[in-house]
Design a protein that fits this description.
It is built from 14 helices and eleven strands. By secondary structure, it is α/β, with parallel strands linked by helices. Strands 1, 2, 3, 4, 5, 6, 7, 8, 9, 10 and 11 form an eleven-stranded mixed sheet that branches. Helix 5 links the parallel strand 1 and strand 2. Helix 4 packs across helix 12, helix 7 crosses helix 14 and helix 8 crosses helix 9. About 45% of the residues are buried.
């Protein structure tokens, strides 16, 4: 499995938590408390702890946007350690295996959050804010919850493609008018697997084989590069760019716009609290904050919020989420299929 291959089975096997005495002494009861005085109890306990440690893959410049308002409001210091998602996963599991509990909160991509759940690193949480979230944001085990989405959409060059000729379904892409005009990103196997499974696996794979064979697809590494190629006209229609990328170019008056063949495919990032969190109350306060007040800040740094009360830049677009379990269990299969059907047969 993906995370086993990355850090080694021995490390993961050791990651099932056996909390040391100091961790066992922490009061975790607030994480599932639902009394009417929940908020003041959490705030009082969190201020007593005074700090929390966050492990995350959010970029350095974006972290300040999210963390500073929390610190200012509650007077609680947030210590952060950030790296790529795989490195955050590796460090969290390694420390858990060594029973060295530093992280209170982990915030990374949904498949890696699901891996932490499977390795018993996270603990269930009850929050009154779960009801405010979009469908699919909360797994049944409640050990992590989606805070934000990155959404793939389709982008087109407005000088080369007319709005009224845009495809409404994927099958519309089989029209001969799209021959030599399509582009896709090199590592979008999660998008690919979600679209194919949505069509029915056999039918979906047949469709992509037919599409590449009939009209061809230009393959480029990097979503920013693909977006730039739409602007330049080298790729009149790109199938997989993140929603904010064409928006950034539009404000510069670049000849680009976007649309989505619904349901658009979305990948979530999630947040969870570790089972041996040294500062569980502060962790819970930050957890709730990420589901509520932080949601409006996410829009400013180009993410899509999961709280339905926050106006989404996507204006009611129907989405379907990448299944983190499929990513963990079947990604080798889908990477191979994507490479064989799209990347190797595509134009470079």
């Amino acid at each position: 499995m993906r995370w086993l291959n990355m850090i080694g089975a021995a490390t993961v096997g050791a990651a099932i938590l056996l909390a040391p005495p100091h961790a066992a002494a922490q009061d975790m009861s607030l994480l599932t408390y639902d009394g009417p005085d929940r908020q003041p109890k959490i705030e009082a306990a969190a201020r007593k702890e005074g700090t929390l440690t966050l492990y995350t893959s959010i970029s350095e410049q974006d972290l300040a946007t999210l963390v500073a308002p929390f610190e200012k409001k509650y007077g609680i210091r947030v210590k952060t350690w950030r790296a790529g998602t795989d490195k955050v996963l590796q460090r969290t599991l390694t420390e858990a295996g060594a029973r060295r509990h530093e992280a209170d909160v982990v915030h990374i991509s949904a498949p890696e959050m699901e891996a932490l759940h499977r390795e018993k690193v996270l603990q269930p949480v009850n929050s009154p804010h779960f009801d405010e979230l979009i469908d699919g944001a909360l797994p049944a085990h409640r050990e992590w919850v989606a805070t934000l989405l990155s959404v793939w959409v389709q982008a087109y060059n407005t000088n080369l493609v007319k709005k009224d000729e845009l495809p409404k379904t994927y099958r519309d892409l089989l029209d001969p008018k799209w021959n030599g005009r399509l582009g896709i990103e090199f590592k979008n196997q999660e998008w690919f697997s979600t679209v194919v499974r949505g069509m029915g696996e056999e039918a979906g794979l047949k469709f992509f084989r037919e599409l590449v064979g009939r009209n061809g697809i230009t393959v480029r590494q990097g979503h920013s590069l693909l977006t730039n190629m739409v602007v330049s006209g080298d790729v009149p229609l790109a199938l997989t760019v993140y929603s904010y990328m064409p928006e950034r170019e539009k404000v510069k008056n670049a000849p680009i716009d976007w649309f989505a063949i619904e349901p658009a495919v979305a990948r979530a990032n999630g947040i969870g609290i570790t089972r041996a969190a040294p500062h569980p109350a502060a962790a819970l306060l930050f957890y709730d904050y990420m589901l509520t007040e932080a949601q409006k800040h996410l829009i400013g740094i180009d993410y899509i919020p999961t709280n339905k009360a926050v106006p989404s830049p996507l204006k009611g677009l129907r989405t379907t989420m990448v299944d983190p379990a499929v990513t963990l269990d079947e990604m080798e299969k889908w990477t191979r299929l994507y490479q064989d059907i799209v990347v190797k047969r595509g134009m470079h």
